[in-house]
Write a structure and sequence with these properties.
Low-confidence stretches: none
Mean pLDDT: 82
Number of helices: 2
Number of strands: 0
Order of helices and strands: HH
Largest sheet: none
Helix content: over 70%
Length: 107
């Protein structure tokens, strides 16, 4: 398990902190829930933004995987073309020798 706090644990910690501060107030004075509500709202927004970021990251990871596969396909095709070109060179040399088109060594 990760040591990093989750949003729920952070929110629970903030609520505990606010309740602890509220318990220090003199009796008869009630703490306003407005700060806690504000924090809940902000953490909810952060949670939504984080979910959006995670979804975008998943999409980017998927697209990157497709790009890598495409690049690998292109590299395979390039290697195949290279082998074919080598074979063409060999075939042309053989044809030249058969037709006696090859020049003798330069003297």
């Amino acid at each position: 398990m990760s040591d990093q706090p989750t949003l729920g644990r952070v929110l629970a910690g903030v609520e505990a902190l606010v309740e602890g501060i509220a318990s220090m107030r003199p009796p008869g004075r009630r703490m306003n829930d407005e700060p806690l509500d504000y924090l809940r709202e902000q953490f909810a927004r952060v949670h939504v933004a984080l979910a959006d970021i995670k979804e975008t990251q998943r999409e980017h990871t998927s697209r990157l995987g497709r790009l890598e596969r495409s690049l690998a396909d292109v590299q395979v095709q390039l290697a195949e073309f290279s082998v074919r070109m080598d074979r063409f060179g060999t075939r042309v040399e053989r044809i030249e020798r058969r037709l006696d088109l090859v020049d003798g060594p330069a003297a």
